[in-house]
Specification:
Elements: H1 3-15, E1 19-21, E2 27-28, E3 34-35, E4 37-39, H2 48-65, E5 71-75, H3 78-90, E6 94-97, E7 110-111, E8 119-127, H4 131-142, E9 146-155, H5 159-167, E10 172-177, H6 178-187, H7 193-204
Parallel strand pairs: 5-6, 5-8, 8-9, 9-10
Antiparallel strand pairs: 1-4, 2-3, 6-7
Helix pairs in contact: 1-6, 2-3
Length: about 210
């Protein structure tokens, strides 16, 4: 994805407060990691201009990188809406994958009707360590899908995610990333010199970072 597109999306995310930067009062992720940044890309669904721009960029990316795609699969829960919008634009079948099989009814993990061997592209809103994304990809492969790759709106760019995706033979692309976001936040006056250093320190060692 081009630097221009990545910067535009970073600007959108900051302006609508889908991304919040707070190095002095860090957030706690589900993993227990302390983080000076919180990203909630569900927010952009409430802004038609942003939503449509992101959808357009997803579509162009998928057409360029995964031209053999036969279906789109969103990852529950945050990837469901984005995936549906993309599938509609591409006029492709759509399904979504749960973190685990349902504990009632049919016990399904993949919601939708896709034939075994279908070439799918997975849609995520956010890529952090890659653990939940790769679990969804493994579930799809277990269902007999051919996963061409994954796309997401934003990535923190952690080395652990890059390594895991390579080990699992799954290419991925994102529309924007942490480094571009920080550049844009500096340009827009969102953060000062001390905060910049804290944000850089966190990116270097997120597992043990603290203020």
């Amino acid at each position: 994805m081009s630097k221009l597109v990545a910067a535009k999306i970073a600007e959108y995310l900051l302006n609508i407060k889908a991304v919040k930067l707070n190095p002095e009062n860090p957030y706690t992720w589900a993993s227990g990691w302390k983080s000076p940044i919180y990203c909630d890309n569900r927010v952009l669904l409430s802004y038609p201009e942003v939503r449509n721009y992101v959808k357009k960029q997803f579509v162009e990316l998928i057409q360029a990188e995964f031209s053999a795609v036969e279906a789109i699969v969103g990852v529950a829960t945050a990837g469901i809406a984005h995936g549906a919008l993309i599938a509609e634009e591409l006029n492709l079948p759509y399904a979504y994958v749960r973190p685990e099989p349902k504990k009632h009814g049919m016990g399904k993990q993949l919601e939708g009707e896709l034939s075994k061997g279908t070439k799918v592209v997975v849609i995520e809103d956010l890529l952090s360590t890659g653990k939940s994304s790769l679990a969804a990809i493994a579930a799809l492969r277990n269902e007999g899908m051919e996963v061409l790759g994954m796309t997401a709106i934003f990535t923190y760019g952690f080395e652990i995610a890059q390594t895991k995706f390579k080990e699992n033979n799954c290419p991925y692309f994102t529309l924007s990333n942490y480094d571009v976001l920080i550049e844009k936040a500096i340009e827009m006056g969102y953060i000062n010199a001390t905060q910049i250093q804290n944000l850089q320190n966190w990116k270097s060692n997120p597992e043990s970072w603290n203020i």
